[in-house]
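Researcher: Quick test of sequence recovery. Tokens follow.
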């Protein structure tokens, strides 16, 4: 049996994508480094998001959150499980990296449990203490927006902080 995949395009997210972004994140809830987000949080940060679309369906999402003019975080990189292994995640990461460059961000980073995956894009391990205290506190606040069962894995888990050189 042959499976044919349509062409995937990455575009900026719109209000119509909020539920799909939430669905894609929820489909990857087993990844404890991927924070789940309420529809309200997604709406407040909608300008940060891009979505991957195939045949009119959102199959992935990612966000670039600018903490300062030069400090930007890539987060919420998620792909529908049925589309894993097809390069959709790579398209999303590259779109965020491009946007970071256009925005003038010189310190582009992320936190992940999949450091080998992000190393393919040039990300290198770093200490989380290289981040401004304000950013660390913001991330800590986001941990406590997660369900209580995710607090300990988020605080003491295998998160690797990485940045582009």
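Model:
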């Amino acid at each position: 049996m042959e499976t044919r995949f349509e062409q995937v395009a990455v575009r900026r997210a719109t209000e119509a994508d909020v539920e799909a972004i939430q669905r894609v994140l929820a489909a990857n809830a087993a990844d404890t480094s991927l924070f789940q987000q309420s529809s309200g949080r997604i709406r407040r940060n909608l300008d940060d998001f891009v979505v991957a679309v195939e045949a009119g369906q959102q199959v992935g999402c990612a966000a670039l959150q600018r903490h300062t003019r030069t400090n930007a975080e890539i987060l919420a990189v998620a792909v529908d499980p049925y589309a894993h292994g097809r390069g959709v995640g790579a398209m999303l990461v590259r779109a965020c990296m491009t946007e970071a460059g256009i925005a003038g961000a010189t310190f582009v980073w992320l936190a992940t449990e999949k450091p080998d995956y992000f190393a393919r894009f040039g990300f290198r391990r770093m200490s989380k203490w290289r981040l401004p205290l304000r950013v660390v506190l913001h991330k800590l606040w986001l941990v406590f927006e997660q369900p209580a069962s995710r607090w300990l894995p988020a605080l003491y888990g295998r998160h690797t902080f990485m940045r582009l050189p």
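The two ends are 44 Å apart (CA to CA).
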